[in-house]
Amino acid sequence: MRTPPRIAPSILAADFGHLADDINRIAPLVDILHVDVMDGHFVPNISLGPPVISSLRRATDLYLDCHLMITDPLTYLESMKAAGADGVTVHIEAVPDPTPVIAEASRLDLDVGLAINPPTPVSAIEPYLDQAHLVLVMSVHPGFGGQAFIESVLPKIEELREIIDSHALSADIEVDGGIDLRTASPAREAGADVFVAGTSVFRADDPAAAVEELRTILNQG
Ligand code: DX5
Ligand code: ZN
Known about the structure:
Elements: E1 6-9, H1 19-26, E2 32-38, H2 50-59, E3 63-69, H3 73-83, E4 87-91, H4 99-107, E5 111-116, E6 134-138, H5 154-166, E7 172-176, H6 184-190, E8 194-197, H7 199-202, H8 207-220
The structure holds D-xylitol-5-phosphate (DX5) and zinc ion.
Zinc ion (ZN) binds at residues 10, 34, 36, 67, 176, 196.
């Protein structure tokens, strides 16, 4: 059963000096806020951590979907929860056996997602799909916003859709990277439920209008 498409703007493309203003401008129109945590080790960039998540928690009631592009997520789940995260997504490339992370997230009452980079096959996360709230298919190489959508990940979204539906699993499929008015529809057709969009929302002249246009496109599919 397909869920309605949900839009998750990525604050990586917002103005970090005016985060609350940027978020409040689009908050009534979106479903989720996507928060990219980078450690300068798993990816060659550093973004933000629990102190900023705490500030976000005070600024908005939106669901905080924290994408952990970090080498050692297990160590940080407790501080993510304390800061106000609702869900955490970890990379299978960082934790090839995510069982301890899934257990710790459950203990902390955090939703847990499993992410795969463009070269990583679906088979890497398949054994754990029944325990995940979310699977995140990266459609760019993680670390930076503003990159071009990698079309060759679409078959992985189709493959995940087939596995999730045929086993009646509840995991949502999130697609992250290069999502805009051109790439959202093929990702939806392939089976994605949640659409992360950084540059195409926060760098638009009118971010609220950009969200509305994205939703119109997604609802046409
Ligand atoms: C990339 C991040 C993405 C990024 C998406 O490492 O995980 O969430 O912010 O940004 P755009 O939409 O600009 O590709
Ligand atoms: Zn992300």
